[in-house]
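Supplementary Text 2. Reproducibility record for the structural model of the 167-residue chain.

All settings were left at their defaults, and a single model was retained for analysis rather than an ensemble. We include the record here because the model underlies the residue-level annotations in Supplementary Table 4.
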Amino acid sequence: MDIILLTGGARSGKSLRAEVRTRAFPGQPVYIATAEALDQEMGERIAKHRARRGKDWIEREVPLDLVQALIETDGGGARLVDCLTLWLSNLLHAERNWSHEASLLADALARQRSPVVMVTNEVGLGIVPDNALARAFRDAAGILNQTIASVADEVEFVVAGLPMKLK
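Retained model, structure tokens:
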């Protein structure tokens, strides 16, 4: 099955690229959002993404139970998960075992019948964070990205809206 991971920096064009890739598959696309509108800025960002996608997408808001959402939506159109980095942040905030959840996700992806396109952030290209919490998050995000990339059929790094094929 088609498991596609798109990574890159902030505002690099990952989400738009993911939407294009998801629409290329037959069937009604499913958007699985891991973000929550916890403040006005995030609410505005979510609204812009919704407007850009249009009304033909099925939307699911899934801040934590991503594996269950993938199981429930399998067998239909392609699913777009945006994004794994926010999902990781939500897991850490909820004090869930992110490493175990990442393993469950990798296992679930291997069993999917319908395509899955996932967006994640590459947070390891900048300077070393100046505090332990930020370093722990960077490390967890790097491990999560490696775990999912290992089971993905394709991995792209998006820079300035341009995809570079990694796998």
